[in-house]
Amino acid sequence: MIKSIRTTLCFSLILFFQSFMKIDEAHGTFSFH
Hints:
Layout: H1 2-27
């Protein structure tokens, strides 16, 4: 059970960062602020 939750968290984190990078690229800037 814990393992599956962990996997889901990691997967959502990766998706979040991917969309974050795409948004940054669209704006033409790269910042983590």
